Automatic annotation (TrEMBL):
Entries under InterPro entries matching the protein: Ald_DH/histidinol_DH, Ald_DH_C, Ald_DH_CS_GLU, Ald_DH_N, Aldehyde_DH_dom
Cross-referenced SUPFAM superfamilies: ALDH-like (SSF53720)
Family statement: Belongs to the aldehyde dehydrogenase family.
Domain Aldehyde dehydrogenase: 27-479
Any Pfam family the entry gives: Aldedh
Name of the protein this chain belongs to: Succinate-semialdehyde dehydrogenase (NADP(+))
Alphabetically ordered keywords of this record: Oxidoreductase
Length: 515
């Protein structure tokens, strides 16, 4: 089932954007399990060539005034909004997600582009810093691009996690070599195409495709910085490989995210919002909530409301907004989800909703599933299921909820529901996670592109969005100018006297709060 906008002509245009001489790969049309598109594959030599080409283009780009660079992204933003439906079509075809999830994904790079259009001039401009001695030394902090940034993206949000991450890298004056996941090259390639249509200089943004360890590995071995989103296992390998070259990397990894329902939560409103937080993108969202902790006093009422809301979710394949939930993206994802649920069921968990695949809708559909009585020996207790499976657990008081929520190696996202928003936010601040959403699942924090987003512990290193989401693609350089030679003693002054005078200066400067 190819969407109408994926014409042969568009496919040829997208294929032409790949640096690939290593054969071809055919992706799957997820709604049917048939073939979707055949795209070129890259070899490690292709990656080297792409990086060299990108590096050549980067020199001129870095020397281009920021205002001229930003004009490209101004046009890109307009083009992106105009091509919303094509982005959604490609995303649905290659991931099987519901159209509303595709729309949400489309919105992120638009928000990110708009955000950095506003903030990049302030973040990248030279900044006066306090010099070593007031009046004697002045200091300026400059921001230089890293060079060629490698972006390695996963299949679950292939458009947002490639285009949304590479736009700030380009804005900062870098070139980019992008490696999307093998199953999901079309939507990122369309984003790349739109950037070139918006006026990006030739060669500055390269795309390589292929096997993760081979092609992704070559990206890490050749670029000057790596932005990676994917599993914790692969992220660890990338960190090791980057460390060998002493290049920086940001790692946006997995999660086993908790949702806390405090005793004063509005039950119907919480159940409605929680269903979205747990099952958006069929649970294949790094931020989605897989562990739901509910205060004892409202556990049964909440479980009833949550199960009822889950039952109302419409599952369907189709290029329109009718479905709440789409398909899982692959046979592998379906197998993991089914294994987690079957294992929990076999070990005594209660299935309150869902719990079975839906081959009648498409080969990889699985019902949104709610479990209780989940114990630590079950796989879904601590491991990321990355599917539409959520477990409900009771707690006695806020301290216990915080302790339970923090009992994980991950630390990506969390959600706290309560009528007293201040209290809920205070509980959230005690959670060991990178983002907390009060009375929402994930979209509030993720959509707040002015604020950083990322994980702690096994959920990663570094942040996207906010100042860090741009500055991580830069090297700072301090240029300090000595105006008056006061940092060494005059020729005839014994060093002991100089040290004494300097100590006095340090005392005075501290007292005056100058340094
Ligand atoms: P993955 O780690 O298998 O693959 C991610 C990307 O890395 C793909 O492009 C893949 O080809 C490439 N890759 C694989 N092995 C590689 C290697 N050895 N060297 C270099 N590149 C390699 O992850 P996945 O299964 O595609 O994605 C799902 C995971 O991503 C989940 O754990 C999810 O939680 C996580 N994720 C995190 C975020 C976040 O922002 N924190 C967002 C989305 C997904």
């Amino acid at each position: 089932m190819r969407p109408p906008s994926l014409t042969d002509e568009l496919l040829d245009t997208l294929r032409a954007r790949v640096t690939g001489s290593g054969g071809t790969h055919t992706t799957t049309a997820v709604f049917t399990g048939g073939d979707l598109a055949t795209v070129p594959e890259s070899t490690p030599d292709d990656v080297h060539a792409a990086v060299e080409h990108a590096a050549r283009a980067q020199r001129d780009w870095a020397a281009t005034p920021l205002a001229t660079r930003l004009a490209v992204f101004e046009r890109f933003h307009r083009l992106l909004l105009r091509h919303r439906d094509t982005v959604a079509d490609l995303l649905q075809a290659e991931t099987g997600k519901a159209r509303r999830d595709a729309f949400e994904e489309f919105a992120e790079p638009a928000l990110v582009t708009s955000h950095y259009l506003r903030t990049a001039p302030g973040l990248l401009r030279p900044r006066r810093r306090a010099g070593a001695l007031p009046g004697a030394v002045s200091a300026t902090e400059l921001r230089h691009p890293k060079g060629v940034v490698g972006i390695i993206a996963p299949w679950n949000y292939p458009f947002a996690l490639s285009i949304g991450d590479l736009v700030p890298a380009l804005v900062a004056g870098n070139a980019v070599v992008l490696k999307p996941d093998r199953q999901t090259p079309l939507s990122p390639l369309f984003g790349v195409e739109l950037l070139y249509r918006a006026g990006l200089p030739a060669g500055l943004l390269q795309v390589v495709l292929g096997d993760g360890p081979t092609v992704g590995g070559a990206v890490v071995d050749t670029c000057d910085y790596v932005g990676f989103t994917g599993s914790t296992r692969t992220g660890t390998l990338i960190a090791e490989r980057a460390a060998r070259r002493l290049i920086g990397c940001s790692l946006e990894l997995g999660g086993k995210n908790p949702l806390l329902v405090l005793d004063d939560a509005d039950i119907p409103a919480t159940a409605r919002a929680a269903v979205r937080g747990c099952f958006a993108n069929a649970g294949q969202l790094c931020l989605s909530l897989e562990r739901v902790y509910v205060h004892d006093s409202i556990f049964d009422a909440f479980a009833d409301a949550f199960v009822a809301e889950t039952g109302r979710l419409r599952l369907a394949a189709g290029y329109d907004y009718r479905a709440d939930l789409g398909s899982l993206t692959s046979r592998r994802a379906l197998t993991t989800v089914a294994e987690h649920v079957d294992d929990a069921r076999a070990k005594g968990a209660t299935v309150l909703a869902g719990g079975r695949p839906r081959p009648d809708l498409g080969p990889y559909f699985y019902e949104p599933t709610v479990l209780t009585d989940v114990t630590p020996d079950m796989r879904c207790h601590a491991a990321e299921t990355f599917g539409p499976v959520v477990s409900l657990y009771p707690f006695d008081d806020d301290d216990e909820a915080v302790a339970l929520a923090n009992r994980t190696e991950y630390g990506l996202n969390a959600s706290v529901f309560g009528r007293d928003r201040r209290r809920a936010a205070a509980v959230g601040a005690r959670l060991r996670v990178g983002t907390v959403n009060v009375n929402d699942g994930y979209a509030s924090a993720y959509g707040s592109t002015d604020a950083p987003m990322g994980g702690v512990g096994a959920s990663g290193l570094g942040r996207r969005h906010g100042a860090e989401g741009l500055l991580k693609y830069t090297e700072s350089q301090t240029v300090a100018t000595q105006r008056v030679a006061l940092l060494d003693p005059p020729r005839r002054l014994p060093y002991g006297l100089f040290a004494k005078a300097m100590t006095g200066s340090l005392r005075i400067m501290r007292a005056l709060g100058i340094r």
